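User: Second chain of the day. Same drill as before.
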Amino acid sequence: MSSYLTVFSDSHGNLDGVKRLRGDFEISSKIVFLGDGVSDASEVLSNYQDKAVIVRGNCDFIQFYPKQALFTVEGVTVLAVHGDEFGVKLSLSRLYEYANKVNASLVLYGHTHQPKTTEINGVTLVNPGTLSSYGTAKTFAFIKINGKDISVKHIPLDKRF
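Assistant: Same format as last time:
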C-alpha cells in the first residue's frame, strides 16, 4: 500500500493557487504546508484537518503554528520545516545534520522558492518550490511513499485547474 503527500510552500497570498491543489489534497494521506502563507493554507486546509501538517515560515506572524513538525508515514519519519532557521539558501548541511539527530529519512523544507530534491546518505531532502510569483515557476511536490521507497515529482501549478 502506498501513501501520497502533497507538499507546498511559500504561497505568499496566492490563495487561488492553493485552492487549485484540492484534487491532490483529496488523494493524499498527508497535506504538508511549509510556511510563508499560513493564512492561505489554513483557510483551505481547514477542510482536511485530519491530514494537514502546517509549519510557519519567516514571513508568517501567526504564532499558532509550530516552526517544525515530525511525523511518520508508512514507517518513514518525516521532518517538515520552513528552512530559514537552517540556512537552506546557503547549504543543506545544517538541515541534514538535524534530520540525522531526529532520525528523519525524509525532510521537507521551503524558503528558497526553488524546487529541488537532494539525497544525502539515505536522507531525502525535498523543496517543493513556491506557489507565489516570487520564484522562477509556481510548483509543488507530490511524493509517493511505498515502504522505504520514496519518489518525488515536482509539478508546475499551471498543470492544475
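Residues 130 and 138 are 5 Å apart (CA to CA).

User: Great, on to the next one.
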